Structure formats: structure tokens, C-alpha cells
Amino acid sequence: MLLPLVVVVGFAGGLRVKDGSLDTLEPWVFVERFCFVPTPKNLDAHETSRKYGLLDFRVTFPVGASPEMLLYYDGFDKWVDLYTSDGTCSKKRREATRSLDLGTKGGFVRRVSTSDGETTASGKVKIDVSTNVWVFIAFSNCDAECSGFCQGPLVLDYDLHLTNGNDPQTREFSADETGALPTTLTFLGAYGVLGALCTLLRARLRRRRKFHHTVAMLCWSVWVQLAGCVFAAVHYATFAADGEGAPACRNTATFLWHAADLLLVLLVVLLAKGWTIVRRKLSINGRVRVAAYVTALTWTTLSLELWRFYVFDPAKTASHYESPPGVVLVSLRAAAVLWFWHAARTTARNYRSKIRFYRKFNAIFTLWLIAKPLLVLVGLAVDDNRRQIFILASDLALAFAAHASLAFLYLPNLRCNTAFPFHANSSADLGITNAFFLGAAAAEGDYNSPDVNRDEDAGIDIDTGRPIDNNLAPHAPEDIGPDEVAIRVPRELAMVEPEKARDHWAGRLAARVVASDKPLGLPAPPPTPARGDWPDDVLEALQDPRFEAEIDTVFFWRHEQLARHGEGLDPQCFLDALDLVCSRTIRLGSDLALVPLLDLANHDEGGGYYATDDGDICLVAGPRGVRRGEEITLDYGPRSNALWLLHYAFIPEPNKADATILPDTRRTVSWGQIPVDDASLQQECVACLAAAPTSLAADNDLLQRRDLDPRLRLAVQYRRARKMLLSAAAGLD
After folding, report:
1. 387 plus 459 within the same structural domain
2. Which has the closest alpha carbon to 647: 441, 353, 436, 435?
3. How far apart are CA 339 and CA 265, in angstroms?
4. Are residues 595 and 680 in the same domain?
5. Secretion signal: which residues (predicted)?
6. I need a surface site. Which of 72, 386, 606, 665 has the fewest CB within 10 A?
7. Under DSSP, is residue 61 helix (H, G, I), strand (E, B) or coil?
């Protein structure tokens, strides 16, 4: 979206020029404004006339014409009243502070010559003022004392050169622009350093495979802002030398700054929505809204800036933010504040594990987003002869503060990088483009689970889409009676990690698995959405945004473990091992253990395990026992369907331990609460059912299809079971 901005700007500049032509039937035309600084009292006459308050002019017009150059310097407000009034040319001429008859030599008109049917008048006007004063220049062709037909057209060429002050770096600048050159050069230097830092940051994160799309957006925003500063510095440096500058460079800088700001606003909104922090992807609706907002903001900004360059009248306002285009641009920023606040609040509510980070991030960048509208309002209280430079410096300072803060947070060697957190691998490595990974439960707010490690109390092994290979699953060599020991494994053969430690036991255990030869004896990890073959439409088919958010949380938790424990290991091997240990580990007191043979047992109700006094780990048959040749199974314990699908990639039916969280009030509904006596809870269940895109009957019909994709079948099974629970809670069964 940046190309249209840059292509057009070469033709958009040069409206505030000091030379031009008039060929109009209008008898009175404004051509230029300039704010003069006070003339010091201790200067000699020669120095005063050469350096301070000087208007050097040259005007050419047809022989016989009698135009006048009018100067107004009674204040900005009085000028605006005059300019916007319906007064006649004669009335406006009478209001002029000073008028110069260009056809008559004398006074400030030092030379009048005629050649080839044209008259050329030239001269100098000294503006001696004690305070900053706006001077507005207009040409007229009318008689101030006339009341009838007393005005004519304006046909002339003019060349105006206004100087201000004694300093060569500021002499050519109007007082409202004084300081633009040093301000631009200051931020050019600052952004030069920041641009180099972003280049270094990009290289470091690429080496670590952590160069996310969000980092790329930040880097490009900084580099585009730097390019804008270069063009602005060229314009103002040239302007300081010749009084004309490079309008195309100025306009290019304006559009580049808009592009950098757009990227920056988009970046902070995406971070507020949790992208690359707690969410692998945005929802379809979220992506559509982002695309629509960015497109609207881009083309609206382009249209409004073109309007400002071609239609905006500098005679009416001291700053472009006071014009209609400026008001619309500020309004768009205010809309971004509201969007950011809503997105940040939603993310903080749904991802409680990152609430401390988001409290700080949301507060800081809400203030940053709203600072621009506030500074525009503050600028209205600044003197009109300093307002423009105040807004320029404020805009650049705000942009630099945001760029520098984000670049600092992205530095990989700082502690804040882990808190941010951008320690997960890059988007391509994480499968953000077309893959989806998840594994062990890792965050607060898990379904029906107050403690993440408790989810693995009896977690062993399951491979849903297909049964586990019979050569791997343990089978009974002989009949085993009810509650008899089926498998006994010495504890020293197990991999054991203590639960209570500074880091997570699963990451430590996964690193041990990868470092050993044990993966050769284990089946493939369960085909949860972690394996990368769950497309977006299947995830949307779950019809449970909160569960999708939990999937994203687990996704990032897995890569936190990779960053913390996987140094020097193959990333995919580590993630596979992490999925294995999280789905096959059993609890032994305060320890978690990966036990040979037990880690191959599939789930079925009844089977259990225990540790003997001498340390052996025993798997016992269920109440029905196990016949010779039958598979020895283990009861994984009660858990919700969300956890079954999240960790083991299957859903047991029926599952009386299922529970779900209602989206509005976050209240939990489980089969253990049936029948429900709370009328408000029943009403919320009814509302949740009504909001579902499909009905329970439609889900049942869909599951009858034999050609249904296995992943979609799991998603439909999940949402059907959820609707059955909600229907029972609502008393609809």
C-alpha cells in the first residue's frame, strides 16, 4: 500500500510558493502569508534593511493595467474574518495595512519599466515589528473609493522573496517554521541510530529464527520514517539556502511519515489483539476488520493529503490540523484508540497468563495513541506563529518514542523480551502462515482445570485419528484377573522430573527425551492441532472462540518451552517430545514420570497404576480384568472434552466429566450440575445455543457422512457434545 503514496507525491507539491502567475477575473486574490520575527533595536540601519523584515518583489503585468499589492498585518483572526467575508474588492482594499501601486514609481516601488507591452515593477518593503506578526499578501485591481463599476481582472506574474532574521539557517523561514531544520536534523540523526539498531535487531532475530512479521512491521516503519526524515531534511536545508526548498521532497516526507505511522498503528493494534504473543492467528472476522481498517485508513489518508495539497487554503488556518482534512485525520487516530482499547481489553480478559504484561502495554500505548489528538488540542492554545513547528516536533517525538520503545522490547538479550514475549520462533517456523501447533496445557483458565500439571495426572498415550500400532500397545500374554497387576516397571527405568521447580517439568523432561534414544521406541505424538494439519475452517468449526484462544495459549507455551529448554536441539524433535511427555506422563507423588510400557497404554475406563514400596510402578487391570491377547489399557482420569481434544486428539463419548465455559459471564457448566436450578444460567445456555451457527440436528447429520475429514469430524464431535451439555443445562432435553 506504500507505492501509491510515493508515486503521487512528486506532483503534489509546490502550492506555498513565492512566485507564480495570476490570470483571473477576480479583482482581489490572496497569494502568500509570512510570519515576521521582531526586529532588534540595537541594529544599524544597513543591517536592518538587509536582514530583517524584508519583502523583495518583482511583478510583471500588461501595459495599461493598474494592479496593487496589498499587505495585511493586523493579526491572524482579523485577517481570517476579512478573507472569509463577502466584502467587495474595494472594501478589502481599504482594510489593507499597506498598499503599493505597482504602476507608479515611488515609496517601496523602486523601479517601474515597460518593454514589449508589459510593465515590470520591483522594489523592497521593510517590515519593522516589535513582536511576531503575520503578514498576508494579496493583489487587487480595484478603486478603493469607487462604488460602481470599479474593478477589473488580475493578469500578472509575480516573484516574492521574504526574509526573516539575521541567522543564515533561519532567515528564509517564516516564524511559524523557524526550527523546522534543526528539528528535522535532530530526528534524522535519532532515526539513523534507530534504523541501524533495527537492522542489527533483524539480523540477530533471523539467526535465532525469531524474526516475526510484527518485527518486520516495526523495522519497516522505522526505515520508512527515516526515509521521510531524509526527504524533509533535504527540503528544509534547501529552503534555508534559497528560500524555495524542494516541495516534492517535502510532500514525499509527509506521505512517508503517514505510511510509517499507519504501520505503527497497525502493529500496536495487532499486538493488542495478541498476535504473535498469545495468538497464532486472528479470527477470520478479525482479519477482515484489520484489512478493512488498513485499506480505509490508507486511501483516506492519501485522499485527504491530496485534498490538503490541492484544495487546502493556508489563508484560513495556521496549521493543517485545523482544516477539514486535518480534523478527519485526527478523528481516524481517535478511532484507532477505541479499537486498540477494545482489542487490548479483550485479549487481557481472555489470556489471563499475560495480564501483567498487557496492563502495562495497554496503558502505555493507549496514552501514545491518544497523545496525538490531545497534542493537536494543546496546539490550538499555542500562539499561531509557533503552532506549526510545535505540531511537527510533537509528531516526530511521538513516533520516535513508540518506535524506540518497541525496538527496545524486541532486543533478544533483554529480560523484557521474555516478558514481551517474543522468544518464540519466527512466524514461518511456528507455522503461523499455514500450520497450527499446540501441546500441553499451560495457562490459567484451562477448562475444568485449576492447575496445568493436574491435567497430566494420569496422561499416558493416545493417538486418535488411528489406533495405536498393535505392535506398540501392550497386550496381555495371559489372562489377568480384575485389579491384578498387568505390568510392573522398575522406577529406575522411568524418566522422572520433580513438579516443583522454577521452570516447567514438561520442558525439562522433553529435553531429556530428545537427548536420549527413547524417541526411537515411542509412537508418533498424538495428532492434535499441534501437528500442523488443522486448517482455519476446521478450527472455526469448533464454534467455541474461547477454546480457540486456549489453543493459541498452549501453542505459545510450547515454544516458550522450546526457547527455555531446547537450545542446541532440533526444534521439531523437541516439540514432538514435549507433546509425548505431556500426553503420556503419570504422576508419582510430587514427581512426573515417563514410564516405559505404561507410556504406550491407551485410554479406557477402569485401569489404574500405583507405586510399590520398593519403587516399582505397577499398571493394574480394571474391574473386568484382561483376557489373553487383549490390549492393556489405562484410565486417564476425568477431564473435559476440550482437554481431551487439546492433549490427546480424541473425544470419549459419552463423557460425563465434560464441562464448558459460557462466553459472556465465564461461568462453568458441567454434567455434574444437571439439572440446573439457576434460571439465569439456563437463559445464558439458551442464548449460547441460539448463537451457534449450526443446530444439534445439523451436527448429527454431518457426522453421518463417511467422507468427512477426520479433523473436521473431531471438531463437529466437540461442538455437538458441547451443545448436548448446554441443552441439558437449559432444560431443553
Report:
1. no
2. 441
3. 10
4. no
5. none
6. 665
7. strand
Q: What is the pTM of this model?
A: 0.63
Q: Which residue has the higher pLDDT, 223 or 325?
A: 223
The string of DSSP codes covering 55-117 is EEEEEEEETT---EEEEE-S-HHHHHHHHTS---HHHHHHT-SEEEETTS-BTTEEEEEEETT
- State the cell numbers at 140: 487587487
Contact 102, 67 (CB under 8 A): yes
Interatomic CA distance for residues 350 and 446, integer angstroms: 11
The single residue listed with the C-alpha cell 482420569 is 637
Average pLDDT over residues 39-61: 74
Q: How far apart are CA 184 and CA 245, in angstroms?
A: 14
- Radius of gyration, CA atoms only, the chain: 37
**Facing residues of 71 across strands?**
98, 137
Q: Which residues pair with 58 in a beta bridge?
A: 122, 159
Span 72-131, pLDDT tens digits: 988 888 888 898 888 888 888 888 988 898 988 888 888 888 888 899 999 988 888 888
Q: Provide the grid cell at 78.
A: 482579523
pLDDT at 4 over 90: no
Confirm whether 437 is domain-assigned.
no
Dist. CA 407–CA 404, nearest whole Å: 5
Record the cell numbers describing residue 491, joined without a space: 522406577
433 located within any domain? no
Percent with pLDDT over 70 in the chain: 82
DSSP state of 524: P
Within-domain flag for 440: no
Which residues span the domain enclosing 416?
180-427
CATH assignment of the domain containing 516: 3.90.1410.10
Q: Residue 416's pLDDT band (boundaries 50, 70, 90)? A: low
Q: Residue ranges of the alpha helices (H) in 351-488?
A: 355-381, 387-410, 415-419, 427-430
Query: Where does residue 728 rank: exposed (0-12), middle (13-18), buried (19+ CB within 10 A)?
Result: middle
Q: What is the Cα–Cα distance from 618 to 621, expressed in whole angstroms?
A: 10
Which of 25-34, 304-313, 397-406 is the least confident region?
304-313
Residues 416/408, Cβ–Cβ less than 8 Å: yes
Rounded Cα–Cα distance for residues 264 and 402 (Å): 8
Residue pair 146/70 in contact (Cβ under 8 Å)? The answer is no
| % of the chain at pLDDT higher than 90 | 16
Query: Other CB atoms closer than 10 Å to residue 231's CB: what's the count?
Result: 23
Residue 86: phi and psi, rounded to 5, are -95, 20
436: in domain: no
Extract the C-alpha cell encoding 444.
490459567
In a shared domain, residues 660 and 638? no
CA atoms within 13 A on the CB side of 285: 3
Q: Rounded distance, CA 72 to CA 451, Å?
A: 76
CA dihedral 168, 174, 177, 179 (to 10 degrees): 30
pLDDT of residue 60: 93
Average pLDDT (325-343) is 81
pLDDT tens for each residue of 153-168? 899 999 998 888 777 7
